[in-house]
Structure formats: structure tokens, C-alpha cells
Design brief:
- By secondary structure, the protein is α/β, with parallel strands linked by helices.
- Helices cover about 35% and strands about 25% of the residues.
- It has a single domain, classed as NAD(P)-binding Rossmann-like Domain (Rossmann fold, 3-Layer(aba) Sandwich).
- It has an eight-stranded mixed sheet with strand order 3-2-1-4-5-6-7-8, sandwiched between helices.
- Helix 1 packs across helix 5.
- The protein is globular, with a radius of gyration of 17 Å.
- The relative contact order is 0.14.
């Protein structure tokens, strides 16, 4: 077991974009020992990298997650920021498209929370990064919008669990990240991930809430607090 610092944060999907920005803030401002998962190691040497490719194979996922959680110190904060863009109507999507999106958006966070709580009984905090798509149905993003909405409700339900501390659900609008690399989307008016990370960080640490749900909107960039349930 590794020696703990002021706390340990596990950031799923923390090797780029918003996840990496949050991981960097947690290490620099709170002296957290930060572990990030993803497919490619980030350049920041102060952040500990764990390779995790969630993928469409549901049979392999439990063992991959078991290996990660069993090797970590006690987790004080789980940040779930994994996600990817998927476009296509239900008729166009393949079985692999569907299972990969559901694995990344729902199955993986559920397995991770299950393993953490079974291992250490309590988890002081969760940051659940969803999307404004959680509240916006789209014909060409049926699985994406569904998993974001489901993940938001899952996190809300977690906040009722006495074994879980504070839970923040943050749904940002589109950001200027690699999320859009294989698309033709215009990102010029999208949010800066560093700015979004600062807002999420402040929302999480500014008060002693039990559950908080926010939308992070653009044009102009702003925060809309939908619910703030005090501890």
C-alpha cells in the first residue's frame, strides 16, 4: 500500500481535456495524490498514470477495474470525466457503438463505485461530469444523451447513500477538447476546459453540501445551479 498524501483523487478520463485540468488543480491546490486513467500517459509527471481502455467488451471490464482499485490507496475523491462523442441515429449505430457508449457512460462508473465502497466502506466525495446533453434530447445522439442522463441520476442516487459524502454533478456545454477531433464541429465558441475546471473545483470546495447539480453554459459562459442540498 502506498503512503497517502493529504488525500487521494482518482480521475477516470483524466489524461486530457477537462479531466486533466481537474487532476492538475487537485494536485496543485490540495496536494492530492492524483491518479488518472486513460489510454495515453499525460505529460504532467506529478500525476500518476494508470492505463485503462474501457472499450466495448463488457466481460473484460470488471477485471480491469478490480486491478485498478485493488492497487490504489484509499480513495478520497472520485472524479468521473470519461466520455467520447458519438453521432448516429439508432438505425445507424452498431452493437459495438451501443455497448461502448453504455460501458463508458454507465457500466464503468457503477463498477468503480461498487469496488471502492466494498473495499473501503466510505467515499468522501464524487465529481460526476456529465454534459448539457443530459437535459437535451438529440436524434443523432440517442445513446450519448441517455447515458449522460442516466449517469446524472445515478450520481444523485449515490448522494442518498450514507457511505458516500458530497456529490457534485456538473454538466458542461461543449468544450475545446480532443472530444471533437474526428468531427467537423466548429469549436470556436465552445468553453475553455481550464475555465470549466476552475468552476467545478470552486463549486465542489466552496461549501459543505451533500448534493449539488449544475449546468455550465456558454454564450455567455455561466453557471446555473439546479439543486444544492446541504449536508
Amino acid at each position: 500500500m502506498q503512503e497517502r498524501e493529504s488525500g487521494t483523487a482518482l480521475v477516470i478520463g483524466g489524461t486530457s481535456g477537462l479531466g486533466l485540468e481537474l487532476a492538475t488543480l487537485l494536485h496543485s491546490k490540495n496536494n492530492f495524490g492524483v491518479y488518472v486513467t486513460g489510454r495515453e500517459k499525460p505529460e504532467n509527471e506529478q500525476i500518476k498514470f494508470i492505463h485503462l481502455n474501457i472499450g466495448p467488451d463488457t466481460n473484460l471490464l470488471p477485471s480491469r477495474i478490480n486491478n485498478i482499485i485493488s492497487d490504489l490507496p484509499q480513495t478520497d475523491l472520485l472524479v468521473y470525466a470519461a466520455g467520447f462523442y458519438q453521432e448516429g441515429s439508432m438505425k445507424q449505430l452498431t452493437d459495438e457503438d451501443i455497448t461502448k457508449m453504455v460501458n463508458v457512460g454507465l457500466v464503468a462508473p457503477m463498477l468503480i463505485l461498487n469496488r471502492i465502497l466494498n473495499r473501503q466502506n466510505k467515499l468522501p466525495g464524487v465529481m460526476a461530469i456529465t454534459s448539457t446533453s443530459q437535459w437535451t434530447p438529440r436524434i443523432d445522439e440517442p445513446i450519448y444523451t441517455a447515458v449522460k442522463a442516466g449517469f446524472g441520476m445515478f450520481a444523485n442516487s449515490l448522494s442518498l447513500d450514507p457511505q458516500v459524502g458530497k456529490v457534485l454533478v456538473a454538466g458542461p456545454a461543449g468544450m475545446k477538447t480532443n472530444f471533437w477531433l474526428e468531427t467537423e464541429k466548429d469549436t470556436s465558441n465552445m468553453l475553455e476546459p481550464a475555465w470549466v475546471a476552475k468552476q467545478i473545483y470552486q463549486l465542489y470546495f466552496e461549501d459543505n453540501f451533500k448534493y449539488k447539480c449544475v449546468r455550465i453554459l456558454r454564450e455567455p459562459p455561466r453557471i446555473e445551479i439546479l439543486e444544492n442540498r446541504i449536508a
